[in-house]
Specification:
single chain; mainly alpha; 3 helices; 8% strand; globular; binds zinc ion
Amino acid sequence: MSSLHCKYAYKQCSAPRAIKRNGNLHNLCAYHRQRANAVQKKHISKRSRMLMASPMSEQVIEDDELLANVLIELACAPEPIRFDTPNQVSPAIDSETLTLLLGLGA
Ligand SMILES: [Zn+2]
């Protein structure tokens, strides 16, 4: 914990890190967390229809590492999973978001 500032990796972000409900600091500021959570929800809600996966889709993940793992797992899926629309490849996580996630563990 060297800094109280957002660890968003893609751009410099001087916003203060968000505070978890348990009082600890998130790695990201509120804005970037919201953004990461939005991406995560979008992917999980699509994927959970396929995999009958976790109840995670209904909750905001509080743990940055868990969030990162979920997204990285999705990003690194061995092959694209097709959803309802065969013509439309599932949207990949954009490089900005991936960079953000890979920077979380540092
Ligand atoms: Zn930020």
